[in-house]
Amino acid sequence: MSLLDNRTIRVSGGILLAVTVCALAGPWISPHDYLATDFDRQLMSPTMKGGQVFGTDDLGRDLFVRTMLGIRVTLLVAIVASAVSLVIGVAYGAIAGFVGGRVDAAMMRFVDTLYALPFIFFVILLMVVFERNFLLIFVAIGAVNWLDMARIVRGQTLSLREREFVDAARLTGVSTARILLHHIAPNLIGIVVVYVTLTIPQAILVESFLSFLGLGIQEPQTSLGALVDAGVKQMEVASWSLLIPAGLLALILLCFNFLGDGLRDFFDVRHTG
Amino acid sequence: MSLLKVSELSIRYNKTAVVDALSFSINRGESVGLVGESGSGKSQTALALLGLLPQQASVTGSIRFDGTELVSASEQTLDRIRARRIGIVFQDPMQALNPYLRVGRQLREILVRHKLAHGAEIDERVIEMLGRVGLSDARRQFHAYPHQLSGGMRQRVMLASALIAEPDLLIGDEPTTALDVTVQAQILELLEEVRDDTALLLITHDLGVVAGHCERMLVLEKGRLVDAGATTSLFASPGHAHTRLLLDAAPRIDRASSLSPATGASILGIEAVSVSYKAFGNEQLQAVYDVSLSLRSGETVAIVGESGSGKSSLVRAMLGLVPMRSGRAVYAGAPLEGPVEHRVKAQRRDLQLIFQDPVSALNPHMRVQSIIGESLLVHEPGLSSQARRERVAAALGQVGLGDEYLGRYPHELSGGQAQRVAIARALVLGPKILICDEAVAALDGSVREQVLALLLKAQQDTGLAIIFISHDLAVVRAISHRVVVLYMGRLVEVADNAPLFSRPRHPYTRGLIDAVPVPNPVVAPKKAPLRGEVSSLLDPPSGCVFHPRCNYATEICKSKLPAARNLRGARVACHHADEIDMSL
Fold first, then answer.
1. pLDDT tens digits, one per residue of B515-525
2. Which domain does B318 fall in, by range?
3. B536 and B392: one domain?
4. Do the chains contact at B363 and A183, CB–CB below 8 Å?
5. ipTM metric
């Protein structure tokens, strides 16, 4: 069975692909620049004239280009943060689970300690110590997300380690690295893929939340969260400047969640079949 | 008029028929055995009788129970019949009992639901029923949770819950398959005792069980009824080739083995090995205690005993999968020491293990080719990928599988094929010792025969020594040269095949042999030879650990641990071995 046989995966994946293509190509096609202010055209409602389909903001900047830019940033944050959590979390969790014993206990207590840090406080602290920095957002989100991943992977590895095919490999003399790579890792794929598609929306939400608080992405750069924040301030006179980025954010989140569900079903089928 | 009349019953999933035009009937008070290999539709039939099939199943035909049609009956109708008129006992009592409810409460529910008793009478009836199924101290067990009971006790509780409403029909779906033979014998005996005039439909793959406990039998093959008749006449002259096949494949404890004796040089010695695990807190669970044995090349030594006897722990310690607490193992003059990762390559190549469940022993994400090829990759890294492929194909051929299996994933194999792949993986390196941990227990009769033949052939061809762990003494009798009997981690008896099965020296050995059901309906089943169950390893009895279950126990057995001693070719640990005659 191919991935595309699953309707949930097909539809949500298709929408995400379309949104990504728009975000990449949109600013390039549009005649407007995300930085260019035009004080003659402040808070214009969406119009086909001049290609300003999403209208303009309070500085007269073209909202279509800014929104597309925001999607790029949001998706980038989501993907990079998830990749960070994927790499650290899987490696950390698989090692803790496979080695077990004291190493496992020590590694997992470290995770527990990190869990105990209040996240927002942690981020504000980071912002104060190192200036506001685009990179910092990745670090902050990744630093939190990999903890969940590590726990999940560790639990799965613990149960895989007890499976007889791992014993069989140990007996013939397969090296520990090879056991981890060839016997444990492939059996983690299902759960990891599903979990990644669920952390992506989580990362997007966190980024939006930080930007909304003014702690995230900085002007003139923007993200969907920052656009929503700006939109809220104008919502009485220019409802579109809130509705459009908020709607797109919701659409992206929904698609990722559905994609996660679809992938979970897909991997279930293979296991029971 | 018959109590249950099934006619033209068919069960389909997506057009695939798992039960095909099945017709049979059961009279009041009759006991009928439904036999067949896995996938023959036995359990599906049982579930259909109770209206418990999943929704995707499409059922046609008719099931008339005492005048009521059950196919397409409403939930209310089925509700009045299930548990009240038809009781069922499933294979795994731990899954069938709710772990969060006390035993008494689960039985009460049936009486309350069907308004069979009121007020204080309810508890009294439950306690009486628990007593009838042989739970000692039923009043206390009434308040126990399922996990506090042993497997045998749980199955007794299941039986109590199936019978408490005094149904007209009792269905047993492999009710003793998950139990030790000794406990199986007890449960089967109990089944006869307590069912009174309740009719019995006994679903099983074990012809020994049918022979001893069913008046009539039905034989299913791939969802079709191929043979039916009185048990005695079908055993004497099977009406269908499949019945003959099943009968031929049934291992016979009452037949001597035809193996020629092994004469190879001694290759492996296990000396005074003990294994213990850490239990709760600082308690030590002594799984294996001071066991010694030896193995020659070309020889098959069987290790037998009930669950918890330390069979697997012993070989796992020898292989370095669990630590040995004391004692040592010597292979070809060199000690087997430390965890398996620290052992020299030659030892890891020469000692190979085959597991009980082939499906979990094969990595679901690897193809057969890589599964078998991996050992070669480790031990013969110089091999070109072409040469490796040829070696893998040759190993597959040795276990009777063609090249087309190279690209398959484990879930695309049947149980028997998967076990062959596991054997090929072990044999591809040309090991000297093969350890089979219940390697054929999960397989159907005919497949088991093939796999055993395969192992024997490998032994004849290469002088392979085999350690064969099994709970099935009938299989052990057929294929082993020597037998080691363990009880609660202690060595009980070691003897050659023929003397052990004709004249066991230890009461426990005799009990194990007697507990095996004989597939011969003319021989009446022996009364369950061993009472009670294995004591807790955390709190072993004083003296001889077997004394609480032994009919010959005297004062000395309660106080003094018997040392293993030689007795006319056998080695036996019993104070009274030379006084009692236990010939069969």
1. 888 888 887 77
2. 266-572
3. yes
4. yes
5. 0.79
